[in-house]
Amino acid sequence: MSLKTSFLTALLSAAVCGTAMVSCGTDAPAPYGVLPSPAQVEWQKMETNMFCHFGPNTFTSAEWGTGQESADLFNPSGMDCRQWASIAKAAGMKGIIITAKHHDGFCLWPNPVSRHTVAQSSWKDGKGDVLKELSEACREYGLKFGVYISPWDRNDPAYGSDEYNEVFRQTLESALGNYGPVFEQWFDGACGEGPNGKRQVYDWNLYHETVYKHQPDAVIFSDIGPGCRWIGNEAGYAGKTCWSTLDTAGFAPGKSPAQDTLNCGNVHGEAWVPGEADVSIRPGWFYKDSENDKVKSVSDLLGIYYASVGRNSLLLLNVPPDKRGLIHSIDSLRLMEFRSALDKIFASDMADGAVAEASSVRGGRKRFSASNILDGDYDSYWCTDDGVTEASVVVNLDGVKTFNRILLQEYIPLGQRIAAFSIDVKDPEGNWVRAAEGTTVGYKRILLADRLTTDAVRINIEKSYACPLINGFGLYLDEIMGETEGWDEPDDSGEIFAAGEPLVLDLGKDTQARGFFYRPKKKGADGCIITYSLAVSPDGTQWQTVFSDKMFENIVNNPVRQDVSFSGPLTFRYIKLTPLRTSDESTYGVAGFGILQ
């Protein structure tokens, strides 16, 4: 080898080595535990998406349709998916997921293996296709497109047999193979068949293979993933401890771990299955005229945001189109107010211009310095040497600042590792005072604090399962929601009854009613009624049965007031609601029970 060749080879080797050092470095921290896929990381960065529940239930005001509704019932008078997309975009959403097939089996696209679809309806003379219109609108507005397809089907005659698995496979192929990229496939685990209903053995391996065949980058949602998991409630909040890892062995969609496990995840869980917090902007999931005055307030939505995105989860906010096929102006206005509030809160970072110093920096190298938590670059981070799992970062602010929101981000591409941390602020005398504390960080953690005024903040990593990696930090002032914390906890309003104990209401005189309502305690505290019988009486002695074995649909996951209509007006003085099955074996809670007039 000539001297010249030898020199060029050495130079090339140094260049290759240098490139490797920049990309992964010999002293870069090793990954810890199970890791997210690139698609899961990009999914989490979306932060907020829109859910659209739309179908026959929109026209019947039901939450779970029977599957026997006429296809002609679905007939939106002025559907415009571009309106949905424009509102979602303006609200800061990154994607839209549509209920392509809910439990009633009705398909919003001409599914060739179903006889209960838009093709059988009179809408657009049977030539309409909601998935086509929405997927095109999403592409036009730069949004990602996702589909919800319920495996439970109250219409398909094959449901409950092995044949249905093939029907469902073809249903997935039809929905996922014809409308362009799908970022998330949503599998609902709900099934209200009851103890004597049809039992379908779902072939989840077949379903997942079908999804990945047509949409290899799709994140699959279910109770246990594999792409992302249900957060354990339909109120939009993750646990204050929230691991993105979950133990899934022995579980399946519809047969999930306990709800508090879903809410918090499992430390050292065997799979990366981050949480998705789904919640509706209204009490119910489908549009109802009666809920136009019950749209969540801006403060409610901010609380949900902090307890979902701010607790290492993604927020999936349901905004249901109305009978016209449009998002109602009340919902749209609230979304714009919500977006405006977020923009106002997060427009000014009180940590801008700050200088950060750490008690430990990996190898003493600038590449891992504390300043990285302030640079806004997602892929740069502060970390310590291996074995150093307790450390602190002091952030000296650019003057005295006032804030009540503290944001931290962990670099999750290398795993989730922080298990306990605290935040101190410096008082006027120069003493460090504890201001907030938490357990997990994950993709993003936002702590709600009392209003704090200081010129220095200290981040204390108190427990980490490997050297900590922090890639983001910010301080913000929320003057809209205020200092509220713990908004997602159940309260004690309402009464508790023994399971099976009837509720009897004396109206004082004969009264005509068109139905009744039942409202569980907040967050379903102390249990709620699932199935019931209902009777009415003129004298409290002779009873007329109105319903003998009826279900409050989806009330366990969404424990809000449910209104139930009679087949026609009834006149009575006494009404008796008898629980047949409750979510708690010994009790159920009641925050409201009365008649509809």
UniProtKB/TrEMBL annotation:
Keyword match Signal: yes
Entry GO CC: lysosome
Domain F5/8 type C: 487-597
Signal peptide per UniProt: 1-22
Any GO molecular function: alpha-L-fucosidase activity
Domain of life: Bacteria
PROSITE patterns named among the record's database cross-references: FA58C_3, PROKAR_LIPOPROTEIN
Keyword match Hydrolase: yes
This protein's UniProt keywords: Glycosidase, Hydrolase, Signal
First-level EC class: hydrolase
Pfam families tied to this protein: Alpha_L_fucos, F5_F8_type_C
Record EC number: 3.2.1.51
Family to which the UniProt record says this protein belongs: Belongs to the glycosyl hydrolase 29 family.
PANTHER family reported in the protein's UniProt record: ALPHA-L-FUCOSIDASE, ALPHA-L-FUCOSIDASE-RELATED
Protein name: alpha-L-fucosidase
Taxonomic lineage of the native organism: Bacteria, Pseudomonadati, Bacteroidota, Bacteroidia, Bacteroidales
